[in-house]
Amino acid sequence: MPELMIEGRAVTVAEGTSVLAALQNAGYRTLRHSRSGEPRGALCGMGSCHECRAVVDGRIVRTCVTPARNGQRVTLLTGDHAD
Hints:
The protein is built from one helix and seven strands. By secondary structure, the chain is mainly beta. The strands form two sheets. It has a five-stranded mixed β-sheet with strand order 2-1-7-5-6, covered by helices on one side. It has a two-stranded antiparallel sheet with strand order 3-4. The longest helix has 7 residues, at 19-25. The radius of gyration is 12 Å and the shape is globular. It comes from Deinococcus rufus. Keywords: Oxidoreductase.
């Protein structure tokens, strides 16, 4: 089973789990905030809305279409990249 680091915390998930599911299983519902400060989270779950973006191994990705892999480092978007 893959073990990834989410915001510095080790999380183990089942094979075939998306990064979004790993985030949500770890309790993250708000993945970023808009420029006006509103909480944003996954909406479509199929890669169309881009609301689930996060940084995985240094790249901004749509977490709902990104498979969780062993050793990945996931951080939430902040600052200029958050909106």
